[in-house]
Amino acid sequence: MFACLRLDSGEGPDAAYQLASWPRGYFLRNMNQACYQGEHLSFYVPLGAVCVALFCILPPAAVYATIAAYNAKRKRLARERSKQGGSQTAIDKELDYDKLVLGFLFSRYRDEYNSFEAVMQVEALALVIVDVFGRAMPPYQQALLLLAVMLGIAAVNMGISPLRTRLLGLMEFASLIVLSLTITLGLFFTDTGGGAESVVDSQAATDAIGVIIMVLNSEF
Predict the structure, then answer these.
(1) Which residue ranges traverse the bilayer (predicted)?
(2) 214 — phi, psi (to 5°)?
(3) Separation CA 1–CA 47 (nearest Å)
(4) Per-domain residue ranges for the chain?
(5) Residue 4 DSSP code
(6) CB-based contacts of 177: which residues, under 8 Å, 6+ apart?
(7) Residue in 189, 184, 173, 182 with CA at minimum distance from that of residue 213
């Protein structure tokens, strides 16, 4: 809905012949439509805003609010149980029921980070944003932006270490590193604007990089 691509710069000796020089770019789904004008402004922009609110902002906010309410209820029930001498009561059954219903949101995280599922959804949203808005960028810039976001996600997840088991954390970190290495190695085949000199032109090197990419992704 918001992905636009600039075509002509409107500069240079042939500027008079550059007809697609709208500074905000052209809608990727209809390259004849200038962005933020006409149909794009009246239909796609409002539709995109609604979709962003419903499918991008609302889910992580709802997850965080749900778990925050659960944490508040758990603390309240814990205080009530302590007043009753810590005996097994209906309070414990109520807590068990809440865990059964909401456990899929936080069971794999440590108690102090049980709302981290909302952060995971924001991280997934960041990857979607790169995919949508990165389409208007040159391929190598899109790859670098995606690489930066993935490394940032890996750093946050490993730094906080919210998962209950170390093995799950290592597996998640390994998958992100493999994807990052795949993107990095793929840059050897991406034209960065320097022509043939900016890409690998050796068949042996091409085969070697391809084998490394296949091995990395098959192992993990």
Answers:
(1) 47-72, 143-160, 167-189
(2) -65, -40
(3) 8
(4) 137-220
(5) E
(6) 154
(7) 182
Q: Classify residue 153 as exposed, middle or buried by CB count within 10 Å of its CB (0-12, 13-18, 19+).
A: buried
pLDDT digits (tens, 9 = 90+) for 128-139: 999 888 877 888
Per the CB < 8 A criterion, the answer to whether 134 and 149 are in contact is no
Residues in the chain: 220
Q: Which two tokens stand for residue 96?
A: 């068990």
Structural tokens at position 119: 């952060």
189: DSSP letter: G
pLDDT computed for residue 46 by the predictor:
92
Cβ(19)–Cβ(7) under 8 Å? Answer: no
Q: How many CB atoms lie within 10 A of CB 176?
A: 19
In this predicted structure, which of 84-88, 107-111, 124-128 has the lowest mean pLDDT?
84-88
CA distance 17 to 33: 19
pLDDT of 38 over the 80 cut: yes
pLDDT per position as a tens digit, 134-174: 877 888 889 999 999 999 999 999 999 999 999 999 999 99
Q: How far is it, in rounded angstroms, from Cα 19 to Cα 7?
A: 9
Does residue 86 carry a pLDDT above 60? no
pTM comes to: 0.81
Dihedral over Cα of 130, 131, 137, 139: its sign? positive
Degrees, nearest 5: CA angle 76-81-85:
150
